Amino acid sequence: MKMKKISMMVGGVMMLLAVGCNGGGEDADITEEAEGTPAPGGPDDEGGGEEVEVDTEVAEGTEVIDIGFSGPLSGAGAYYGNNTLNGISMAMEEINEDGGFEVDGETYSFNLVSLDDQYLPDETGANVRRLVQEDDTPFIFVPHSGGTYATQVFNEQDEVLLGSYSSEPEITQQGNDLTWRIPPTYDNYIEPFSEYQMERFGTDLAMLPPNTEFGMDWAEALGPAWEEMGGDVIHESSVDYAQDTDFYTLVTNALADDPDVLFVGGSSEPTAQVMSQARELGFEGGFLVMDQAKLDEIDNVLGGAPDVIEGSVGVAPLVDDIHEGNEQFVSDYQEMHDADPGSEAGYHYYSVYILAEAMKAAGETEDAHAIREHLDEGLHQVDEDKRIYDVSGIDEDGGMTTELRMAVVEDGEVELVDFDH
To answer: Model-level pTM?
Structure first.
């Protein structure tokens, strides 16, 4: 594995997210209380399927394109869902404030129609149907794999382009011509994450992923790969973040056979609580963190806890990977939300600009197939200062090809690591 490291201090350089939680102590109920950076007009913790008003003022004198969103905006996944929504709405506001964009001689603005699905795939399917039938949306964002699969059952028939924010590899292996997978697939991370943890801590792995479809798929891929690399999986269980608020029993069982490495993940705030409780129970090994959870968000949720995340490996935090393409976005986001943007916000922000350019290239705002066919062209037309990530293309299956990095925490510092894939 080819490595290049860049050091960043944990906690000290990160802005504390405005989350309503008690940190990682025994009584902290992160799953219920922490909602992260709230989306504009964010909902209370009730009522899946409810519309969430987002202030995306359209440019005067323009035609309006309704863009749909179905994601978790209440309950245990609210922090994650609201961060995705923040990125979308921020890009739309910028585009609209700039007068919109021209497609085939007509000027258009974006309007965001967002519905809460509470991370429930059946609710996602109902929401997408509603968005298509009531708002005639040509494009819908869905930021989780269960909802993506539920939508793929009918989105081709309904001729709606699905923007899936999930790293599940099978999403673009379904032969669905109207799917766009936005982040890189998680299978690229398994070998380098495992290699790092085996070399640093040892070969005994306990697995405690979330019991979501995505979490189970991650575990099913990681376990055999870990064993093929010479390791042993000594414990396998899962956690239900929608039902459980105290993870001590689950964590105690996972640590019973003294693992070297603990596999955890899901939304950042409940993952933070699992990791904190593992440390309180005496775990001194490493955390292999699935890509949905983010190390900087975990650290911030815990109020700055380098001792908890020490020895972790996960995806590279956006705020530790600043370059010309994302510097302005990060600064603007921090000013707007008083918080650091995560990859959910960054990728969704970028994708709105790609979508606008794809519509311009296609000469179409309604034909989902034409827009899909021009996504790669649209990607390459996005202005340099809007290219949040180093994405080289969108392949014929609809997957974005992104230059990959990972992050490790050593001696209180985040180290960014490039690797061959």
So the answer is: 0.83
